[in-house]
Amino acid sequence: MSALLEVDKLEAAYGTSQVLFGVSFCVQPGDVATLLGRNGMGKTTTVRAILGLTPALTGSVRFCGERIDRYTPDRIARMGLALVPEGRQIFPNLSVRENLLAFAANRNACADPWTLESVFDLFPRLADRVRHMGNELSGGEQQMLAIGRALMTNPYLLILDEATEGLAPLVREDIWQCLHTLSARGQTILVIDKYVQRLIKLAHHHTILERGQVVWQGDSGQLAVEPGLWQRYIGV
Predict the structure, then answer these.
(1) Quick one: which of 93, 107, 201, 220 has the fewest CB in 10 Å?
(2) Apex CA 157: angle with CA 102 and CA 15, to 5°?
(3) Inter-residue contact 155 to 81 (CB < 8 Å)
């Protein structure tokens, strides 16, 4: 099976400060994959380079078999990549409904696309707040809205950057349940998060970054029996 996303020997920098050094990994269709590592190790920069937000110095990024590392971010998004960014970045002066409809599209041409109704089924709390402005929502509700907004594009690949960061435990549990539901539906997902024990139960494949380099790759079974990796590279 061909990889949906293939990152090969990717290098990237901010000005004269190089951040990524030959990062390579793949995400297979229907899988949940993770990028793990402590803060500042290059996870978000990797995502930014995939999405064209930070130019790649060398290496390549292929999506659906097409090389995209020289494409503009809007072109990449239209191909069916959707990001739930760290910090949510919803529109504060638009209602829940308007936030969800702002970029609605069926980018993967699926027969059963995400709609307002199906997003509300996934997150009933948003249905209760449908007329509220983005800045009137709690942090957890904003995170649900950010995920729902990404799903409304019906992406081939959903990328979540620290989707559970700073949330109350009960709300965090709602997000994990959401991700399990999406995985069961066959949604391909790339997750950045620090809760390794939850990710082991959710994801199929893991990549650990240390100082902008891949230091370990493997499946959940391998990661589960190597807790020393958690201490060394993730700080759990």
Answers:
(1) 93
(2) 85
(3) yes
Q: For the chain, give every domain's residue range.
A: 1-79+186-236, 81-155
Give 7-43 pLDDT, tens digit per residue: 999 999 999 999 999 999 999 999 999 999 999 999 9
pTM score? 0.93
| CA dihedral sign, ordered 72, 191, 86, 88 | positive
138-189 tens-digit pLDDT: 989 999 999 999 999 999 999 999 888 888 889 899 999 999 999 999 999 9
Which residues touch 184 (CB under 8 Å, ≥6 apart)? none
Q: How far is CA 14 from CA 48, 84, 168, in A?
A: 11, 22, 33
